[in-house]
Design a protein that fits this description.
By secondary structure, this protein is α/β, with parallel strands linked by helices. It contains 19 helices and seven strands. Bound molecules: zinc ion (ZN).
Length: 409
């Protein structure tokens, strides 16, 4: 077994309730089991590491369980469950289409389908990465999918739904797995760390979760790499940053703070620091843009909800210190910072961008001043015109004359 996948396999959920971040899907599946209304073909699609195959296995185990619990979970005690847990089940077949994508592989499956399940209720075929099947394999499969024998169930999984032909899509009940939220990944890693008696620093777990980008499998792989890299079996912040080539978020907050305050030399020093610790320039640009984008999201009561709850406050605080124009202009400048075709000049290009950003607020003030002046001039001109037009008014002239007469009298 690959050392880096140990935690992911060891702590793979065996019940619906333990699947992380896909409550709607597991709930729907449980309801259809409860109501004995199980589709014959499922398609589980979504990004990698979000629980598709795990969910497929739990579904296969549960529908074959002889003693399903009141919570619609497999009992883990009956013969069928035991066989499944010991990988001995003769009624559940798994095929990884990424490596077995030929028409022969599919024909093998089709030839087995004719036989009734050995002892269990259903024969379940789990085909992972189904979009990788060759065209001829797809075609061979289609007929079976159209009219599967009564106790046969197909669970197809794919990370790329767009590559699956519509005729297959239309025959499946489709479940879209979402990226798992950072907060949920944090919670799961902490659970596993506790079970494994591995010490951790909160900030380190947070970084791992962010870096895994919604994939629990990736998060746990990183978790294993870092906990194995130290003899103390501890997940600490510094080794996490080093291992992941991640930049501490604080750097982005600090550099932005100085740019808002127009403290150019401080901002340049921070960037110099980042450069000296050997942090990759492209990753810096991506991270900085992401940071500015997060600040921008805080400017609107609806978009603010796109930020994950646990980091909202800090971003709101910094966002309140700056204007939307500053953020939009900064992102534009960073986007124009072309470092890809110019690897030798990466550092100078980034420094130039930082210099430009540090002038934004001054620039905004100048424009506002100009606008104000223009507006004042316009107002003055209009008042003048009003007076002029009034003095041309004959009625008004009469009034003035009359007034003058009264005064003379
Ligand atoms: Zn059972």
């Amino acid at each position: 077994m690959n050392k880096s996948t140990v935690s992911y396999r060891k702590h793979r959920p065996s019940k619906f309730k333990n699947i992380v971040g896909q409550f709607n899907i597991t709930n729907t599946l449980k309801n259809s089991i409860k109501n004995k209304n199980i589709a014959q073909s499922f398609l589980f699609c979504g990004p990698k590491g979000t629980g598709k195959t795990t969910c497929a296995r739990i579904l296969a185990k549960t529908i074959n369980c002889n003693n399903i619990t009141n919570e619609t979970e497999a009992c883990d005690k009956c013969n069928s469950c035991n066989n499944f847990n010991e990988n001995k089940s003769l009624s559940i077949y798994e095929l990884d289409a990424a490596s077995n994508n030929s028409v022969e592989n599919i024909r093998n499956i089709i030839s087995q389908i004719r036989y009734l399940p050995m002892s269990e209720k259903y024969k379940v075929y789990i085909i992972d990465e189904v979009h990788m099947l060759s065209n001829s394999a797809f075609n061979a499969f289609l007929k079976t999918l159209e009219e599967p024998p009564e106790n046969t169930i197909f669970i197809l999984a794919s990370t790329d739904k767009d590559k699956i032909i519509p005729t297959i899509l239309s025959r499946c009940q489709i479940f879209n797995f979402k990226k798992i939220k950072t907060e949920e990944i944090i919670k799961e890693i902490k659970n596993i760390a506790k079970k494994e008696k591995i010490e951790y620093e909160e900030k380190a777990i947070e970084l791992i979760s962010i870096k895994s980008n919604g994939s629990l499998r990736d998060a746990l792989t990183i978790f294993d790499v870092i906990s194995n890299s130290s003899t103390k079996k501890k997940i600490d912040y510094n080794s996490t940053i080093k291992n992941l080539n991640i930049l501490d978020n604080e750097y982005y907050f600090e550099i932005t703070k100085n740019l808002i305050d127009e403290k150019l030399s401080e901002a340049l020093l921070i960037y110099n620091n980042i450069n000296e610790i050997g942090f990759n320039n492209e990753d810096f640009i991506i991270g900085f843009t992401e940071h500015l984008k997060n600040l921008m999201l805080c400017k609107n009561e609806f978009s603010i909800n796109l930020l994950e709850e646990y980091k909202k406050n800090k971003y709101i605080e910094q966002s309140n210190r700056t204007s939307l124009s500053f953020l939009i202009n900064s992102i534009n400048i960073i986007n124009q910072c072309n470092i890809k075709n110019n690897s030798e000049n990466q550092k100078i290009n980034i420094e130039l961008s930082i210099i430009r950003i540090s002038h934004i607020n001054n620039f905004i003030r100048k424009i506002e001043k100009k606008e104000k002046k223009k507006l004042n001039e316009k107002k003055y001109k209009k008042e003048n015109e009003n007076i002029k037009s009034l003095s041309k008014n004959p009625y008004l002239l009469e009034m003035i004359k009359e007034l003058n007469l009264k005064i003379i009298k």
